[in-house]
Amino acid sequence: MIQFSWQLFSRAVVAVRDDSSSSVRVPQSQEYVPTWNGVSIILLAALTAVGCATEKKISFNSDVYPILEENCIDCHSHSKGKGYKKTGLNMETYEALMYGSLYGPVVIPRDPEHSVIIMLIEGRADESLRMPHDEDEPLSEQDIATLRLWVKQGAKNTGE
What we know:
Layout: H1 2-19, H2 38-53, H3 60-71, H4 82-87, H5 94-99, H6 116-122, H7 141-152
């Protein structure tokens, strides 16, 4: 189907070129073969850049840490947290969060589906393990989306 379309297109191009008054003539027997020229590559790069520009870059300090501070650090702090005592997960700093828990890493950069932190806040691991725990309200959909996007973007320690 694709080959047929290119053949049909090449015949149309040849017919237009033969009917034009330009000095460039393409013989009927020559088949059009699409190639990547400079214009195509620039157009593709521009469209890719536009698509990437629409996704907000998530900052650990500005976007992620405030969510952790409000919802997680009371339990997952080195000095007083019952979550820290139980799992060894300290969320007070980027480095501590990326170190993970006694059971391993909780953030897998670029992989929100398998990152334990995302699985726990979404309740995908087990409803009894959903974070935040106990009587605390679950994170908002917006906060979950922010954390997912941060992990998807590589879970970097970026400033502003």
